[in-house]
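Late entry, evening session. Most of the bench is empty. Finally got around to the prediction I had been postponing all week. Sequence below, unchanged from the version circulated by S.P.
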Amino acid sequence: MSESLTGPAHLPTPSTNGAVRSRTVTWDDPVETAQRLASMSGLEAMHALMRGEVPPPPIAALLDMWPIEVDEGRAVFGVTPAEFHYNPIGVVHGGMAATLLDSAMGCAVQTTLPAGVAYTTLDLQASFVRPITRDTGQLRCEGTVLHLGRRIATAEGRVIAEATGKLVATGTSTCLIVDAD
């Protein structure tokens, strides 16, 4: 027998010890930020984000991930797994690692683009090597451009647990390069 839910999402319910956890996330208007960044090259835009000259995108605030390093054709992001990343089976949801990979690989492509040119992810493949928990500690994801064409770019990414140096996920991405207009 299947069960469906209609109406508003479930409200948090207390755990067995009665504790209810909460988290507040705030962000700035992402459209305004994108408009400010459109006049910059991709590398300039990433540097502006890292220096705090423009606010981070809402997804970065939601997942609490951040850029660590950027160079032309390369972007490194970090995240520290926490309870709010967990799925119902007691580990970090694979979507967090996939989003980290998508961000690092996509931003690696972005760093190669001139002002007025944007990208969007066409394809993303992620392979999960080992489970991630809050005890894994900070993750570092490096994205690197493999190929940059006129309309298509490809990139690869690796997610490493910094404390152990162990690989936790890998990915590849294909991006479509488009005029930002």
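Two things to note before I forget:
The first helix runs from residue 30 to 37.
The first strand starts at residue 65 and ends at 71.
Will write this up properly tomorrow.
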